[in-house]
Design brief:
Layout (H helix, E strand, L loop, with lengths): L1 E5 L11 E7 L3 H9 L1 H7 L5 E8 L6 E8 L12 E12 L3 E8 L7 E10 L2 E9 L6 H18 L3
Antiparallel strand pairs: 1-2, 2-8, 3-4, 4-5, 5-6, 6-7, 7-8
Helix pairs in contact: 1-2
């Protein structure tokens, strides 16, 4: 199950965001670990046809989050985007097994860092995960919607084996 919500069409007072919810067929502990253990995170993070070549996750308030995401040779990337991208930020809230919040500065985005909140809840047959991505520009909402849908698909596939 996947739900995607985005803010209304850009207006002067609108604050763009992306929100997606999905049920992952794994325990809350296992899904949380996939977000906080570098060796697991590297197996699923990023859009389809991308691999993580390096990751640092210091999952504590103030701790660092950093990764490098490489597009595979056959991958299509949006015009003007690099084939290798880095992301970095810091954890602003960590409630083990329940909630992660962190800033994210993508190397392709020269604006202010965005804010990502991930919540974990028990659900029938697994864990409900909700992503709320805020502090993004209106012109990136569609890219983030596609990116999160693909990324969460990879997380789901991690536990399908």
């Amino acid at each position: 199950m996947s739900t995607t919500l985005a803010s209304p069409q850009p207006q002067a007072s609108a604050v763009p965001f992306v929100k997606q919810t999905r049920i992952i067929r794994a325990s809350r502990k296992d899904v949380y670990d996939a977000w906080t253990k570098p060796e697991l995170f590297a197996k699923w993070w990023g859009p389809a046809d991308h691999l993580v070549s390096g990751v640092v996750l210091d999952a504590r308030e103030g701790g660092e989050l950093r990764f490098t995401d490489d597009a595979l040779p056959h991958a299509t990337v949006p015009p003007g985007f690099p084939r290798t991208m880095t992301g970095s930020g810091h954890y602003t809230e960590v409630v083990p097994g329940e909630r992660l919040q962190f800033t994210m500065q993508a190397s392709w985005n020269t604006g202010e860092p965005s804010l990502i909140t991930v919540t974990f809840r028990d659900a029938d047959g697994g864990t409900e995960i909700t992503i709320l991505h805020q502090k993004i520009s209106a012109d990136t909402v569609h890219l983030y919607e596609l990116g999160w849908a693909s990324t969460l698909g990879k997380l789901d596939a991690l536990f399908a084996d």
